[in-house]
Amino acid sequence: MNTKDIQKNNPWQRALRQLRAAVKRTNIDPLLALQLENPDRVMEVSVPLRMDDGSVRVFQGFRVQHNNIRGPYKGGLRYHPQVDMDEAKALAFWMTIKNAVVGVPFGGGKGGIAVNPKELSLEELERLTREFTRKIAPIIGPDVDVPAPDVNTNGKIMTWIADEYARVTGAAATAVVTGKPIGQGGSEGRTEATGLGGSYVLQYLLKKRKLDPKNMTVAIQGFGNVGLYLARYLHEAGFKIVALSDSRGGIYVPKGIESIGAVEKCKEKKGMLAGCYCVGSVCDVSNKDVIGAREISSDEILTLPVDIVVPAALENAITEKNAKKIKANIVLEMANGPTTLEADAILEKKGITVIPDVLANAGGVAVSYFEWEQNRKNEHWKKADVFARLKKLMDDATDTVISVSKKRKVSLREAAYITAVERIASSATPKP
Ligand code: GLU
């Protein structure tokens, strides 16, 4: 990528342009607009680490607190070599918007460490997480800023953070992070929440358009926590999942994947999806001819002839280079920021419906809010109750975004941004 491309695909620059476009359509106080263009606080820390072999390395860590007008800063921590300040700023901003779109009482935050956690041992990962926690401890807390899992982070990592936070501050504070394991104060359904939430949003939109999901074909890029649960729930609802991919490649099964569970098991065994052709619960290479399946790359998956395509991996998956080739009628953005501005314009021109990330993937933070609420009240809700609350919240948010989009004659993304910016404005204390 040359410098121009990097600048163009810079997520923070994109976030700013999205914000300015939405602000133009509202009459919010220019001072508030300026506040939203500038994160409240950014923190960069260095995290020196002794490796298992005795060598030493230093990693860069980040936490961005974008805005807290509607409540404590809230958003994930990701461990990925691509993590940097501009990415964290954009992701924190998208959290501010997302939390306002689904109406949870949080602002936006995000952060992470520039590291490939797959190269670390479990002990190194724990030491890295604890050292990072010590560095950000002064600016997080249940009423201040509440981290959660994101790319390559999970419940175990959240437990280390909560534990280290308690050691540093001398006060146990379960609600300092969400996405914890159930035994450690986590909520039922948090693991499934992002995928399940996305399936609710999609089904609500289809119902509004009087479209039957039965046999609609779906291709999903990304088979981490989000892609996996989305695949499971859509399959259960009658959609035909024809393609799945992870960072190392994927499978295309035009007749539809019979069992997502079988593919999941196969991936666990092989360490990758490629080659996991499954008939019923039997996965092997010879099935390839029986069911007409083939391997595909994680780029090709986005341009398959399907009804719905789902980017559920990282930013900038759909760019001006592949947007023209997209054949689906609906793009369900389960990753954060998967579509560049140029690609967004191309998709709109082609009449493709883009269900924006700030709505589609908000199920995760919605259940994070339920977890935070349970922790504060010392309660533990049943899974069925969590799912019922999640459904209501996602349905309401989707309904609002669809009606704003109709009323204001704007895309679903713009409608989501307008809704969020106006909600933030109405929560703000006017400044002289
Ligand atoms: N990392 C998730 C997101 O991007 C969840 C954040 C949270 O639960 O706070 O929405």
Automatic annotation (TrEMBL):
Substrate binds at K74, K98, S368. This is Glutamate dehydrogenase. PROSITE patterns: GLFV_DEHYDROGENASE. It holds the Pfam family ELFV_dehydrog_N. Coiled coil: none annotated. The active site is at K110. One of its GO terms (molecular function) is nucleotide binding. The keyword Nucleotide-binding applies. Signal peptide: none annotated. The lineage of its organism: Bacteria, Candidatus Giovannoniibacteriota. GO terms for biological process: L-glutamate catabolic process. It comes from the Bacteria. NAD(+) binds at T194, N225. Belongs to the Glu/Leu/Phe/Val dehydrogenases family. Residues 187-432 form the Glutamate/phenylalanine/leucine/valine/L-tryptophan dehydrogenase C-terminal domain. The record marks D150 as: Important for catalysis.
